Amino acid sequence: MSLSRDEKLQDIKNFIQKDLLAADLKLSLFISAAKCYKKDFLVNPFPAFYIKNHIKDFDKLAEDLDQIPPLEELLLLLIAEFGSDQLLSDTVINLLHWVLIEYLKYDVQTVHKSKHEEILLLSKSTGKYQVPNYIFQINYKNTSAAERKFNQLKFGNTTKFAYHGTKFYCMYSILNYGLQQHLNKTALFGEGLYFSYELQVSQLFSQSVLSWNRSKLGELISCTAVCEYIDDPLYTKIRKENAKNSDIPQNYLLITNNEIVRPRYLLIYGSNKPTLKKSISANVVNNSIELIDEPRTFLTWCRRNPLIVSAAIYLLLLFLVGLSSHRSFDHYKNILMNFFKKRFKYE
For the whole model, what pTM was predicted? Predict the structure, then answer.
């Protein structure tokens, strides 16, 4: 039986209030995959109500995603909507309910800062590493066939933990369907999935990518997964201690069976206070809501686009260097200097 609009609003409100950062992560994972250049492949599962004539309507999906405000403001909208006019479209409500609650085969839970060190020690890492901003625990639902299979294989065997680095936009499909070795483009030391007991090694493969620009986690995010794996020598390969010749580098772990490894935690690295495209203040008065857009400034744009600013400065320097070597440069420089001398009466 399909839920009514008010029931979906209540579900979304309860989910965000329970763990706002976890809701932010689930939404950010989906949006990062949906806006990636490999979106047709990475947005899996895909919401069926955006498929028309067997074609995925990414344009409509992107349009609706852009209507979703930061989650604190979304909560105000959801509270204000009950018993009043619709402040969010039906398609946005359906999308939020699908991403946060309906289809996904996992839930996430924010791990308290006091538990971070305990989780980071699961792999028995000995090297120095960058401390994550956030850690999230992955809890799989009963609908996850991969989790059921792992638990069957795990019975009576020893499990260990290792790190796996990947781009943030890849984690959406990984958390739904598990790690897939046939999708791995890195096979320098054999086909399979690559892990490490040292966090700093896995972070080399976790480059920062664009996330949701309204996320509390940050606009640019890198992530590393803490994975549990079954220690089966048939499918795991590491460099043996004191081995002089080995095709596996030190601190690397190669796993050749998808079914014996599962992500358990996500380590998230991002800015704590991302700069938003718009700063929106909200007032709720008499069960109604007023949104006030504050204008963006040039300095805000520069802070949000450091690569573009750096490239522009570099091009300007190249132009000035080229200009200075031109034979007419001295002529125009003298004209300019004479102008300033006359204008400011310099001798």
Answer: 0.74
